[in-house]
Amino acid sequence: MNDNNKQNLITRLFGGIKMSLLHVILFALVAGLYTGAVMLVPILEGTSFRDIGITYECWVVMAVIVVVNCRNCIEAALKCFLFFLISQPLCFITQVIFGHMPVEMAIYYTKLWSIPILLTLPGGFIAYFSKKQNALGAIILGIGNAIELLLGAFYIFTAAKSLMSHKLPYHLLSGLFCLTSIIVMTLCIQKRKSGRIIAFITPVILSIIAFIALRAMGRI
Q1: Do 24 and 114 have their domain in common?
Q2: Do 10 and 114 lie in a common domain?
Q3: 124 and 144 both lie in a single domain
């Protein structure tokens, strides 16, 4: 596959796919089974490969892929909700089947995720507008980018601390994934230069505000 084909494939992921109900279900099954599977491998503990089962960076990207390929905001809300309704419990079910997680703990985590899963309904509705080629669309995309930037900064800081302690930077890949996802999503979804600038600046501003707030609360 040449570079142009790779670029076209990535671009299609963010707005060039017909996200049918079957596609959403298959996407959710693959995401859930993969996440459950990597959590079963002991050698991957503490590495970037397990971060998908702990934090949100990969799930933000997958949610964006679902919603920007929908035809309207209602469809985006429902399909985003369906994606998480299938994928999240499946992560825990996979671990229960292979004896990695007690049933009680799987039920606990499923309940813990119930509110976030419900929030994907309004989240998917709003995120759909990130593909609109205007300031509002760019700001909405920028909010998603802010999640990636905050997580990316955390991972890179963690990796740097590991290197200074002469340890392997286990979460460096996750940090690079977060920063790459910001660039890819922005360039693929926002076509206008002004929209791209807003989508890049918004997460920086939100991250600075978050840093100041956390510092004021004594969290960092």
Answers
A1: yes
A2: yes
A3: no
Angle of the 135-164 helix axis to the 103-127 helix axis, nearest 10: 140
Which of 107, 130, 153 represents a domain boundary (last residue)?
130
Pairwise CA distance, residues 195 & 211, whole Å: 25
166 in the same domain as 106: no
The model's pLDDT over 49-87, given as tens digits with 9 standing for 90+, comes to 888 988 889 999 999 999 999 999 999 999 999 999 999
Backbone angles phi, psi at 217, to 5 degrees: -85, -5
Selection from 80, 70, 219, 90 nearest residue 150 by Cα? 219
CB 117 within 8 A of CB 84: yes
Rounded to 5°, angle at Cα 22 from 75 and 77: 20
Q: Which of left, alpha, beta for 19 (phi over 0: left; psi -120 to 50: alpha)?
A: beta
pLDDT tens digits, one per residue of 163-188? 888 777 788 899 999 999 999 999 99
- Number of domains observed in the structure of the chain: 2
Element (H, E) at 137: helix 135-164
Q: How confident is the model at residue 218 (pLDDT cuts 50, 70, 90)?
A: confident
Q: Look over the chain and give the mean of its residue pLDDT values, rounded to a whole number.
A: 89
- The dihedral built from the CA positions of residue 153, 158, 163 and 168, taken in this order, carries a sign that is negative
The whole-angstrom separation of Cα 142 and Cα 197 is 10
